[in-house]
Amino acid sequence: MGRIKTTIKANSSAAEEVNMEHLTVLIGESDDVIVELLTNIIQAEIGDTIPIKVLGTHKGVELPGIAEVNPIDLFVPILNNLVFPGGHHKERALRLVTYFKKQYGIPIIAMAGPAELAGPAKEAGADYFFKMPFGVAEFQEAVRRCLMVKSGEALL
Q1: Contact 54, 41 (CB under 8 A)
Q2: In this structure, how many other beta carbons lie within 10 angstroms of the beta carbon of residue 2?
Q3: What is the pTM (predicted TM-score) of this model?
Q4: Ordered structural domains, the chain, with CATH
């Protein structure tokens, strides 16, 4: 992954409250820069003492298989960047959100370029939706809130 420069405010109060060995995040995205940015933002939110394991691909059909063999704590799909056989399919990306919510009950922060996917993403099971580009502080807050309620367990 290439290095990027960005200013991300660390949330020291959240970092002090984290009680976990590591955080596994599944990101559905093809752009390494976006994956690195999201990773850095999440790491800043939970602090440096908790390592993040980031898994992912832009191939929508591969995401469930990754989750089958890796316990996932947070799913962040970039809906309009997921590719399925035959191309980009927003409807299939939304079905994937529903699958992850029903199958694993994990927090989901969906993102997309088109704002019109906000309603369908939330109906599909996303806890939060961000139109890209997105606000870093708002995304950090969503991460914090999602981890507080992951499967009924307080992680933060």
Answers
A1: no
A2: 6
A3: 0.84
A4: 22-149 (3.40.50.2300)
